[in-house]
Every structure is written in C-alpha cells, then in structure tokens.
Amino acid sequence: MSLFIRSAHVITMAEGTSSSPQVLDLRIEGQDIVAIGSDLQPEPRDEILDGRDRLVTPGFVNAHTHSWETVYKGRYDNMPLELWMLYTYPLLGAPPRSPDFVRVRSQLFALESLKSGVTTIVDDVLETPSQDFGQLEAVVDAYERIGIRANVSGHVINVPFVDTVPFAADHLPAEVLHAVRNESLLSAGEYLDYSEQAIRRYHGRGEGRLHYMLAPSAPQRCTPDLLSGAVALAGRHGIECHIHMLETKTQAITGQEFYGMTLPQYLESIQALSRNTTFAHGIWVTDQDIEILANHSASVSHNPISNLKLGSGILPWRKYRDAGVNLGLGTDGCSSSDTPRLLEVIKMASLLHKIGDSDPAAWPSVDETLRAGTLDGAKSAMLDRTVGSLEVGKRADLLVWDLNTLNFTPRQKLDHQLVYSENGSSLEYVMVDGRIVVDHGALTTLDEQEIVDEFNGYLPEIQAWQDRTDELNTVFHPAFSAMYETCRQAPLDINRWAGTADSVLTP
C-alpha cells in the first residue's frame, strides 16, 4: 500500500522539534514513512488522503501495562498496592489459565488499546501461578493477528511473596506461611533459559512488531542473580528489561529494612542497571537515586492514574527531567487504572504535577507529556529507532484526527487541545506498520464483536474463580494491613541515604 497525506497539520515529535503542528505532506510506502515535507508530489499509484482539517500524530506508546488485569477492570477500589495485589495477583488458589483464554483476553485488551490510539504496548504479562510457552504463544499470536506492536514479557517473581515485604510474615499463621513458601518458584537459571528460548521463538514476529522482554517483577521480589542476569541478557539482545521499582512508601521501607540502602543503590551494587532497563513507577526516590538512574541511562515509566487510584504517591517529574532521565507514560493494568487509554494518562500527567510542585516553571509542558507518550515511551521500550515519531525511515505508526469536532472548536493550539480537550472521539484512523487497523472507530483486522462475545463467554467462569480466590486470599488481609500501617507510619532514614531531609518526595 502507498498512501499520500496531503496538507495535514502534523506533529512529528522528532528530536529537535516541538509539539506545535506544521502543515506538511507525508508519503507512506508499505510499512515505512518515505517522505515528509512541504509541497511534496504524490506518485501515480498513491492513494491520496486530504489532510485539510486533519491532525496527524505518532501513535501512542503505552510504556507500562498488564493485559492480564483486563479481567479485573472495575472490580476493586480503595486499597493500597500491597493489599490490592492480594486479590489481583492472588497468592493462593489461582488456577492456571488456558492458552485459548489468554488469547481471548489479550485480543480484548489490544482491541481497546488500538481503538484509543495506542499503537505500541509494553505488556508486562504475568500468569499465575507461572507462565508456560503455550500461554506466551497465545499472547504473541493474538497481537500478531490484531495488528498491534508490543513488547511482551515473561514476568517472574522468584521469592515467596510474603517475604517481599517487611513485617507481614510476623502476623501470619505458620500453616499459611508454610503453604506460600512451598510454592514452586523458578531459579534464575530456569528463567534465563526460558527467556533465551522465548527470544529465539518470538523476537521479530509480526513482521518485526513483536518482541519478548525480560521482566523481573521488582528488586525485592527476585533473587540478585536473576536481576543481574536478566539485565545482562536484555543488553546482549538489545531488548527491554522491565522492572517495578519504588511504587509505594512500603517499597522504600523495604529497601531500608532488607538492604540498608535504597532499591536503586541496591540494583547498582549488583550490576542490574543499564540503558535497556525501564523502571515502572519510580515514585519514592531520593535525589541520589535519580542521579544513579541518569548515570546508567535507565528509563522510568510514569503511571499517574494508577498511582492515584492506589494512593501510591506522585512521581518527581521535574527532578527526573532536569537530571536527564527518560520518562515514558503507562496506563498500568486495567485493575489499578481501569483503562488502557493512554490519552487519559497524558492529560493526567499534564495536570497532576501542577499540584505536585507549586512553581509554575516546574510544571510539565504539553510538549513534554506528548513526547513522553510517544517518542520517549518508545525509547524506554528500546523501539525509538523504529517508532515514536514521524520521520523518514521509521515505521508508519500514526493517528489521524478529525479537526471538525467540538473537541477542536474553536481551533487554538492543536497540541494543547489534543491533550486537554480531546477524549478520543475525534480519532478517524489508526495506522500500524502502514496498515489502517482502525477506521472511524471500527477494527479492520478482526471481527470486533466476535472478540467481545468470545470473552463474555468466559465471564461466568471468570467471576466464579475470582470470587473463590478472593475468599481464599482474605487470610492475608489482616497481616498485610498491619504491614502497610507499620510502613505508613515508619520514618525513612533519608539522611543516611542522601544527606538531605527532603530528598524523598512524600505525597
């Protein structure tokens, strides 16, 4: 397919440009953008799209999400992360899900993502009790067929979960501790072998759209040899290693209690930091932590909606930016944010930090948040040479917006209106790899209603096992509530870590 977009308002998000649109022509040949400029001429075989009254932008990059949580959308509220995880990521009684169910679940998540303009997802897939190749294949196959771009993980926890937080084990009955600590867990070697095989099987599937990524769950949830081994393996293959870090005050206390240092300091000490490493959340950091991440060229994926729903805190946006740390944006999963729509996250990131810092000079600009939702998200995913901006030689992952809508009326600064006024209803076309995958709200690659109906066919089964596992896992609730309260009230020994009493941003 060759497409010529004539005289559109275009936000390229290329390095050295701003988010203010220019009137440009674009030519797409096959998967690639082959020309951008003013007064270009179409080739005889080109299909021509009149760009007048249209805005063209890069597709959004969701730099941290969990497709698994689709089944929990809207189920839980008013629980901090550590208690919420007992139910969404149950310790007991979660049955393994069949590959067919995983395929249906993944298609549903990709469907909603694409229809909201997300063309790339960093999908940190966790299966309980563990992931096998049948389940991983089902995710990759679903994304290949529906036409989305994705990094897909084998998420791993190889420390008993009750031992990943301080104080909780002290409040649990001995028989419960025994049951959890005797669950089968992967060794570092087993996980790295699994990942090597996954890279061989899946890297570059879907004409290059799909990649496996390493995903040690968090520093406190994995053994040191697994963490350092995963970062090294990702570096050898040029792929992403995705790790949760310092999402909550509890996790900051965990570093203090377990290692006598912050979690970034701990990761540096075991050589588990690199350009390939992206940290989801990164809220409870010291100034020294930020410097450590900057020195290793690591990225952070900011998830403001999820962080607000779970009461986790507010990431120090300007400190990261000033230090040169690359920031992407993520929705997190559909249980802690209840949406895969990244445009909502971009708006939230633009608004939240106006409250987090009283200095207007420190507030995020529209250019910064749009860049975090596109090019900088692609950088965090190790995909910025391929997508994230509209440039010659990059893949044609782009969005076409209708400007003849109330969201853009009256026309002012179109980039500002995209962030603050648009709700997704003006989206006309979503293109991935030069292929229109959503046309005026309709998926073109698969039967949308069939995807929804197939998922809903599983709903009685889903709700039944959710109810059973919720009941089983209430046994942990009092202990984890006590742990959370202890951490909530505990002082952080910041002076020992960073030398200043205000180095940690306390929400």
CATH architecture label of one domain: Roll
Question: How much is the average pLDDT?
Answer: 94
Number of strands: 17
Give the low-pLDDT segments. 495-507
The fraction of residues assigned to DSSP E strands is: 15-25%
- Reported by name, the CATH topology of one domain is Urease, subunit C, domain 1
What is the highest CATH level, the class of one domain? Answer: Mainly Beta
Class by SSE composition = alpha/beta
Rg, Å, rounded? 22 Å
Number of alpha- plus pi-helical segments: 19
- Tell me the name of the CATH homologous superfamily of one domain: Urease, subunit C, domain 1
What overall form do the CA principal axes indicate?
globular
Largest sheet: 9 strands, mixed
Percent of residues in helices comes to: 25-40%
Distance between the termini: 51 Å
Protein name: Guanine deaminase
Organism: Citricoccus muralis
GO molecular function: hydrolase activity, acting on carbon-nitrogen (but not peptide) bonds
Pfam families: Amidohydro_1 (PF01979)
